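It is worth pausing here to work through a concrete case rather than discussing structure prediction in the abstract. The textbook approach is simple: state the sequence, then state the predicted structure, then interpret. We follow exactly that order.
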Amino acid sequence: MDALFEVVVFLAIATFGAALARRLGLLAPILLVVLGLALSFLPFFPHVRLDPDLVLVGILPPLLYVAALETSVPAFRLNLRPILLLAVGLVIFTAFVVGTVVHWFLPELPYAICLALGAVVAPPDAVAATAVARRVGLPRRVVTILEGESLVNDATALVLLRVAIVAATATTGGVGVGDVAREVVVAAGGGILVGLLGVVVFGYLHKRITDPVLDNALSLIVPFAVVFAAEEIHASGVVAVVVTGLGIGHKLPTLLSAASRLQVTAFWRLIRFLLEGLVFLLVGLQLPEVVRDLDEPFGSLVAITAAVLAAVFLTRFVWVFPATYVARLVPRVRQRDPAPPVQFPVVIGWAGMRGVVTLAAALGLPLTLAGDTQYPRGLLIWLAFAVIVATLVGQGATLPWVARRLRLPPDDPVQDALSAAGVQQRASRAARDRLDELAAGAPEAVVERLRGLTTSRANLAWERLGGTERETPSQAYARLRQEMIDAEREVFRAARDSGQIPEEALTRAYRDLDLEESMLRQEAVE
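Step two, the predicted structure:
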């Protein structure tokens, strides 16, 4: 009962923090981490120790799954080169740089465990990258690259971490190239195979299910089922979830009914909101647990912490600029993908926030090394925690300011609207052609109403090309129709209160009016 009460309290605080962040115009992940840090100093507030398995198996899979569902597969494929350079190349580079820095400060530590810490702090967090990048309003391609990196880099880091821990705790012999290659093949290749199997199995089930509630339930099961299947064969659950999410998300328009898509979208929006808030709050609350085992001299602690932070920060920039421009020295690459403005690699380099995966991986470091040798495990956990707080609060809080100062070339809204209007024109023409085929025998008034509907949808798409100085016909329609809906609701509510209609009639009427209002609001946002 006490544990359930604590969960409810944490969710309530996370919700309050997210609401406060919106009110103050701040980024919710940053405010929640700071709030968690502040609450950790209160002696009466419950101190919670994060279970690494809970994070990596219970929290991360659904967050990765919903991020993959919303990722455009064509855009992901188009940016595959920069995504892999960051998600694989940069993670390995950062891990070795940080491992070398730590080994230089602590030469008595085996290099393998130093490399393990490097793997822990190497991957930017999927949750932080998605939450911050979309909130800041970065150009679409930058967001795609950052989200794609965050979907894949955890797998790279966790595989490297697994190899480093095996090397650090091995009692006989070492870890050879063949062992590393086998680990990579099993983790990555097995994860891909399990993910593809998940696409086939759960895609088939989604296609067969027509009940939106069952579709919701199945959607919640998918990431956990895929992770458990991957872990059973010692493959990467992260890779499996990402592959399944990308595949299901790409096919979602043909797998789910309209009602299921609406419910699944709303359902995952709520799940992501609660889990993200809970995750960042819990990160801040780990401070007492992290500092408990620290016994290093203050000067040494500050020096090694500053060195690791500098290594994490600088390696990203050292890698991003050559990765962006060196490949374009090849004429074929340059012709297919011209070099972006320098602001792009700068903002990508700045967006290196770490998060809960780093903390969970740090807490999963072994208690002892080979031969039950003790090592300063508490110091390594502190370094990982310092990287999380410094990058999330420091870089995350300043990312909007950096993006504004850089004046990144924005996506062209006119070109986007023009493309959408052209497609909508073709879609409306196809709808009218289908109507003409089937109109025989239908009442003329119904046919004319449907023709008017297709015309109004086409007009709405073209109206978005105009300026915002004057109210468009569609905006006027939405404003007036909203007032009419409010008036209808009031009549139904009064009739229910006076006993003229049963509660079921009110529910049906409100459902129809709510759906219509949601469409009006969506068109207004677009």
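Step three, interpretation. The mean pLDDT is 84. The chain is about 80% helix and 0% strand.
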